[in-house]
Amino acid sequence: MERIMRTFLAFALGLLLLAGCATSMPTKSERPEVTITAPVEKVRTALVTAAIENGYSRRPGDLTNLVFEKNAGLAASIILGSPNEPRVVKRVRFTLIEAGASVRVVAGFAIISARSRTEVEQRGRGYSDLQDMLNQLESQLESATIAEGERP
Q1: What is the CATH number of domain 2-148?
Q2: Predicted pLDDT of residue 76
Q3: What's the whole-model pTM score?
Q4: 44 membership: H or E segment, kind and range
Q5: How do residues 36-94 score in pLDDT, each as one tens digit?
Q6: Residue 12 to residues 8, 76, 150: CA-CA distances in angstroms?
Q7: 3-26 pLDDT tens trace
Q8: Cβ proximity of 116 and 100 under 8 Å
Q9: What's the pLDDT at 144?
Q10: Contact 80, 88 (CB under 8 A)
């Protein structure tokens, strides 16, 4: 009975994931993105700060690919985890692309299941939340840059 319930829950989650994949962003990459007129160091620092303040931990990466993870919660662990490895994580990735005085930030959001060792990219609410966060970050950094006189 438990196996049937787990299979049903996995199927239901799969349908939800597919429903989320149908949503695309109105951006060039079809992912959350912004172009911020600010120094790349300030953009990088602001992204790291925002991720850590939202409970994410920094994962190995380089200066142009920032990767953060946090536990996906009990429900995700029950549905996607395995008895030997119940940990399921949310992963957020920011790619920074320098373009003169601006930095293009492209984000992605995924759920990592220990059972399958695969990354399932999430769209829908995860993407719209990321886009909102990037828009706020853009406003804050560009306002600060103008105030400091770094932008003509």
Answers
A1: 3.30.310.80
A2: 73
A3: 0.72
A4: helix 40-53
A5: 999 999 999 999 999 999 899 998 888 899 999 988 878 777 777 777 777 788 889 99
A6: 6, 12, 51
A7: 444 444 454 445 444 444 445 566
A8: no
A9: 80
A10: yes
Q: What share of the chain is helix, strand, coil (3-state, %, to 5)?
A: 45, 30, 30
Task: Indicate the length of the chain as a whole number.
Answer: 152
Strand-pair category, 65-71 with 88-99: antiparallel
In whole angstroms, give the CA distance from residue 32 to residue 54.
17
Nearest 5°: phi and psi at 16? -65, -40
Check if the beta carbon of residue 61 is closer than 8 Å to that of residue 91: no
Distance of alpha carbon 14 from alpha carbon 20, whole angstroms: 10
Which residue do the tokens 């719209």 mark? 128
Query: To 10 degrees, what angle do helices 40-53 and 125-148 make?
Result: 130
Q: Where are the beta strands (DSSP E) in the chain?
A: 33-37, 57-59, 65-71, 88-99, 102-113, 118-121
The four Cα atoms 56, 59, 62, 64 give a dihedral, to 10 degrees, of -30
φ, ψ for residue 140, nearest 5 deg: -65, -45
Q: Which two tokens stand for residue 52?
A: 């850590």
Q: What is the pLDDT of residue 114?
A: 66
Among candidate residues 75, 54, 62, 19, the one with its CA nearest the CA of residue 132? 54
